[in-house]
Structures are given as C-alpha cells and as structure tokens.
Amino acid sequence: MITLLLVDYDPLLRQGLRSWLERVPDITVVGEASTDTEAITLAHTLQPDVVLIDFSMSTTDGIVDSTGLRALAPRSAVVLLSLYDDATMRERAQAAGTTRVVGKQEGIKALLAAIQEAATHGRQLSGGRNDSSRSDALEGARQRCSTS
Q: Does domain 2-146 fall into CATH 3.40.50.1370?
C-alpha cells in the first residue's frame, strides 16, 4: 500500500485528484494540504511514501516546497505535478530532491506510473543535494513548522 499526501492550493483540483486516487487499490491518500507550511507539517507528521505537490503553489513553487519536505520527511518521495515542463525546471526540481516531475499534459496514467515508481524505486532517482544545502533546508523547514 502506497501512502500519499496530496498538496495543491486549488481545492477543486485536490478534490478531483483525491477522488481519482482513492479508486486506485494500492494508494491511500493520508492527508491534504493547501499551503507549503501545511504540507511540511503534515509530511513530517504522517511520513507518507509519496508527497504529490503542484509546482504552482500560491505562496511559493513546488520546488521550494520539495526542499523543506525532503528535509523533514526524508523517506518520502516527492512527485511534482507541473504545467511547465522544461529542462531548467526539471534540473531545479531534481536539485531540490524531487523524485519525479510529471507534466499535467501527460495525463492521469503517467501520474499514476510516477507515483508508483517513486514509491517503489527510491526517494530520489538521481542528482541529490550536498550535505550543506540539506542542513540549510532542514533548518528552514523546522523554522516554518515552529511558526505555524
């Protein structure tokens, strides 16, 4: 069973994704977040197998959020859902610890495959950050959690 935290600022999109994901036998949505702070707090508390986060979060972008999520939930794989799909964005996402990037235009089957791959094949496929940036991310994530 894959546990999943769903993160998107748009309640309609979250509801639609949750409704679809709940029909998949091996995925359990264990929580939802609408802000980066909420996402980091829930990821730390729930320690899901996968965090599915939208790149276009309202206060930050999903790449920044991936850094904090990975710092406080290091066993959770991060799958980034994005309307934008270019090499620069993928490089930034990978450097922040994102396991997979799925373009919204790829559809639901690609998203499901990415979630299953992320949960099965490791937390980060390649291109990790160095220990110094990981420590900085952990400290920043802890500060955000303590102010919420």
A: no
